[in-house]
Specification:
The structure is a homodimer. By secondary structure, chain A is α/β, with parallel strands linked by helices. Chains A and B meet through helix 10, helix 12 and helix 15 of A and helix 10, helix 12 and helix 15 of B.
């Protein structure tokens, strides 16, 4: 593999000094970019794009052509694992993801097999390998997975949900069955992320999109415990470098200390958390990634710049900050505003 | 007015000792009750039920006939104020509330007038008066309003929203315009809640359903500041008693100290907050109301009882706890499970 030319992101994750705060955006390869929409139209539906190695590689690199990003993130979906388990993932226009065969009963869960990435999800590792080659050392590549709890909600509900009625009913009435499902998912995620690391992912992020819907006690038992298991099971050193792990629980601002206690390297913060307060709570245990409200990107350039500066100022001096949005960028954002955002991070961060 | 026979709720709000932890449920008069559905069918649509004094009174009292609740809450909607401002509130089956005339421009906001409850919302104060008479001192009556920010989101979006794109765009690009709207709403809420207090509401709760969608800085400036203004503007003593104020920001667990600093008497907690941690954070400044996940009511009675006990145990000894759910009860809950819940609170709380 070619030498890494920009290691700002990796250094910040390990809480080492950097010249400027590194920045990337969740969902940076996405619908706000016209060149993404063009490739997507060529590929057909969303999963066909994920499964087409060349096109997945192409869209992964698109934001790097436009902006001075400090990391690339594999273009894929968080629901590839349940799809590989045979649940039949599909997307209907204007709606979220759906499964043809949701998981509802003990028999459904018994029938699930822990995935073998090499045979079941080779399209993902193929994409990772190709992206690393095409990146040619420009920036590091992030691999990712959904958290077991987040995957379980989609698998049980069969789709997105507001209140997770079925998943929470299982959690409270059949906790051992829920644990059985989460255990299979955690083992699958470990296999999946380790395969991504072997294929070339230099950092991995676990997206716990729906952990924040749980009570504090249920979060610890049904979401964090399985992310802990994953952190413990990941390859920690590969190709001469540590492989940092980022945990992101949307709505998890109350639980940062517990998350930092897993041994992960960084926490993703959504915008509800004051980054200054977060920093004083987690101390020097982890780096922090975040946390501008993506809605700010709808505002005028001057507002974007002042919001960037406020977050940089909140984190203050010292290592361990990766700038990001508090959640994925939305399709309605003007790409010129993204440039303002990325440039503002680099411009203003030099002074901290 | 007749003498209050059960003042457990009022005492707990003032952090005075009680024999058993008082309990009520957000949305306790609601669709999970067959007798509610019967009255609702008679009334026609939801707003017709709210505007019919006799029927609104009848459904307010229904849960008290079934369960040993320690408080009644006025049956109404949080969107009565924007409806009275002329936005044309309506409900479509299977969807949330909608407005015929959403507020989008400076001219729209200029045209809004602070409501005069006596002339614009007399159906609400009439209902309060009748409910107090019919309650005949059994338990105290809670009045309520949506928070200015929460009302503003519906008024600007014209309906429920996932990401509040329009409201946040206004907040970030035209903050002074947003402040103008919030100021009119805060003055309206003060008038509205004071009218409810004069009509007989013995406690008031402010529902900040969407405050948790804001960044920590935007929450302070655009939601909490206006709830502060309301707390400052409310009648603090009426009919020989203090009038306690409860603030509830869903998803506001990170901001409890700030909320307690407004001078309110109690904070509503959603289920993401550990009540033991909340108690140690706010100290003796406010009482705490909550915070069981409503999803627990779908589980078996033994699970409901153990979850109730865990929360009582979390709060521990000492005054200032009102048991509640972390959000409204959902329509699919078995009414027998509600009885298990209410009885468990009374049964287990005596030991603390």
């Amino acid at each position: 593999m070619s030498e890494l030319k920009n290691d700002r992101f990796l250094k910040a994750l390990m809480r080492q000094p950097v010249d400027r705060t590194p920045v990337w955006m969740m969902r940076q390869a996405g619908r706000y970019l016209p060149e993404y929409r063009a490739v997507r139209a060529k590929a057909g539906d969303f999963m066909s794009l994920c499964k087409n190695t060349e096109l997945a590689c192409e869209v992964t690199l698109q934001p790097l052509e436009r902006y001075e990003m400090d990391a690339a993130i594999l273009f894929s979906d968080i629901l590839t694992i349940p799809d590989a388990m045979g649940l039949g993932l599909y997307f209907e226009t204007g709606e979220g993801p759906k499964f043809r065969k949701p998981v509802r009963t003990e028999a459904d869960i018994d029938a699930l097999e822990v995935i073998d990435t090499a045979s079941d999800l080779s399209y993902v590792t193929d994409a990772v390998t190709m992206i690393r080659r095409e990146l040619n050392g420009r920036v590091p590549l992030i691999g990712f997975s959904g958290s077991p709890w987040t995957l379980a909600t989609y698998m049980i509900e069969g789709q997105s949900s507001r209140d997770f009625a079925r998943a929470k009913t299982m959690l409270y009435t059949q906790p051992e069955l829920m644990h059985q499902l989460l255990e299979k998912l955690a083992l699958s995620v470990i296999d999946y992320l380790n395969a991504q690391i072997r294929a070339g992912a230099q950092v991995v992020q676990i997206f716990d999109t729906w952990g924040g819907a749980l009570s504090h006690a249920a979060y610890a038992e049904f979401s964090l415990a399985y992310m802990q298991k994953i952190v413990d099971g990941l390859i920690s050193h590969h190709d001469g470098r540590d492989v940092p792990v980022i945990l992101f629980t949307k709505g998890g601002g109350l639980w940062l200390e517990k998350m930092a206690g897993t041994g992960c390297h960084a926490l993703g913060l959504d915008w509800s958390t004051d980054i200054a307060a977060a920093k004083s709570r987690v101390g020097d245990r982890v780096a922090l990634q975040g946390n501008m409200d993506p809605a700010v990107l709808r505002a005028d350039p001057a507002v974007i710049e002042s919001q960037v500066d406020a977050i940089l100022n909140g984190f203050g001096a010292g290592p361990g900050h990766i700038f990001n949005l508090g959640h994925g960028i939305t399709p309605d954002i003007n790409p010129d505003h993204v440039k303002v955002f990325i440039d503002a991070v680099h411009k203003f961060s030099a002074k901290y």
